[in-house]
Amino acid sequence: MIMSQAVVSESVAPVAMGWGDVLSQQLITGVSNGMIIAMIAIGYTMVYGIIELINFAHGDLCTLGSFLALTMVGALGMEAWAGMGGTAAVVTLLISSAVFCGALNWTIDRVAYRPLRGKPKLALLVSAIGCSFILVNIALFWGGLPMEVFGGGNQAAAPKDFPSLISNENLLGAQSAITVTWRDLFVVIVTVPLMIGLTWLVKSTRLGKAMRAVAQNPIAAALMGIDVNRVIGSTFLIGGALGGFASVIYALYNNTISFQMGYRTGMDAFTAAVLGGIGSLPGAVVGGIVIGLVRALSDGYIEARWTNSVVFGILILTLVFRPSGILGAKLREKV
Amino acid sequence: MLKNIAVVCLLAFAVTPAMAQGEKPEKVLKIISSLPRTGSANAQTTTMVNGIQLAIDEVNGKVGDYTIVYEDMDDASPQRGNWDPAVEAQNANKAVRDESVIAYIGTFNSGASKISMPVLNKAGLLMISPAATYPGLTKPGKGEANEPKIYRPTGKINFFRVVPADDLQGFVAAEWAKDMGVKKVYILDDRELYGKGIANVFENHAKELGIEVLGREGIDPKASNFKSLATKIKAAAPDMVYFGGTTQNSAGQIAKDLHTANATPKFMVPDGCFEKAFIEAAGAENVNGSAYITFGGLPADKLTGRGAEFRANYKKKYNLKENEEPEGYAVYGYEACKVLLDAIPRAKTKDRAGILQAVSETKNYNGALGIWSFDENGDTTNTTMSGNTVENGEFKFVKVLGK
What we know:
By secondary structure, chain A is mainly alpha-helical. Chain A has twelve helices and two strands. A two-stranded antiparallel ribbon of chain A has the order 1-2. Chain A is globular, with a radius of gyration of 21 Å. The longest helix of chain B is centred in the first third of the chain and has 22 residues, at 2-23. At the A-B interface, helix 1, helix 2, strand 1, helix 9 and helix 10 of A face helix 7, helix 8 and helix 9 of B.
């Protein structure tokens, strides 16, 4: 009894929220969640754009990125890095996971997809599903390693708490009804430049031009002297690296990771890619944000149990009226 | 010709099991447990299995001339990270087929009991659960209209539990909330049998006590976060959020998101979260002093009499440190096995039917949980419950709850 009273007096008195505040808050949550989905959706859409493969392993690749990040937090004692050290910790995590996921995605392409090029598309798809299972089980094994930072240590499948490296302080002041934290800002600060950078890369560099050429017609591209396999490998590398960034953002934003997180996040991202128009980079971003917003609004104003139905209902409606998605190219040949 | 071969084959199949039975070593009674070994519930399962093992070791693995053999089965799968209906069904069928099996200790999750109960009932095999608390499994009128009849196709009772059911736990949880001065509550559930059931009981009794229910909804346990829900709850401004559900179904993430949104100071959960994994998943800073956990019994260090003996023996056998305690369910695993071992000498015939009969006649049993009996539904007459909170990342006993 005594304890509960103490708690009430300690905590900041909740500020009453008007309907406008609630709506703004839901939109903020929706955009933050949507940006994370979008980052992962880019990985799906890039690979689809170039080899017309739904890379089912992509979501689970991000899971491994998060596990790497958590392992590093524990190994380097990052929770103790204060002040500027905190920023250094976050940057270190972002870069390490990006490198790791990029390299891993490249390896997966080299080992599991490249030997199947030119074979029936279904073989490639089954190979992707197989990779997804392998990655999930690696994550399960990884989570079971006896490491101090994993709390329970041997509970492989338990959700794992990811330390709050980013402050949760309300930037608008503790008395404000709307909460915007460093975490929300962090999501935007990291994702927007990456998306702009990626667009620049695809639009203006030699590699980007080569990627677009291979996407349009791999045989013609090869005849023009483009090393098709190298370009496809680079696409996996870049898509994987973005997934790596997303995995760290996910972990720092949600503060929980588990071996199964890739399934749901991957499903959302894949849906976003299809909604936006698979193969289209801006489409993936738009799709991600739309799904983030729809999820937030449905959780907030309908009921959480209906959210999946609402998301997929919107997806079906969009595809009925615009089969190639919101921003998809109309004439692309689909498998 | 073909027909003859078929007949020979059929004969061969018919004869083999009979021969196997003939060769089966006499005087072995086998106990099986079916509990989740893969996933975050594994920590609790380990302590329950330790409890079962302790009970068997205390009688040196023998009752009269009979040797007790114990097999620890997993009813979870890595795909689900949680109990799996397919695996539970497999376990139940395996137990039924093995004629030396006389008791099935399980399950941890009420949903899993629903699967194995009818299978074991048809085989007349005794089932004792240390943890499944959904009322409809045993009590007529407390669940769906056809419950518990659908779990008892033969009409005979074979399912017993040593843990009080949720109609009591949800009830005392609401009373505890009222005692703490809660006036407005927001209720969530994980849309599973156990979570939804206990949330219903809590909701009904909270209304009877005059607590205003601001909202009630089922969550999507696999969602990556519940920030939107937290905002909605913050806007409704309840004094407490009650979540009917388990650690595996995101209890930790909900606590985290509510805390992050500064939505409410109090978060109450049932015994499905009474495990260290809940605190670990939530992060201690998000539940310290703000999470309230009801549990259908007492924490190990509050047990008296035989219970205190159990605690001492357990700590010794499993080398727990001075400040470490058996997890909440250890004593239920122990009690489930102990009450069975106690009944075997009383059984007129040492087979499934005889032992089932003897266990059902358990009256005024003096065990680790106090002196209790099995009632006409197979429920324990024990109603002692406890309220706990979290302090410095550890569970802390607050008070005894009960009617």
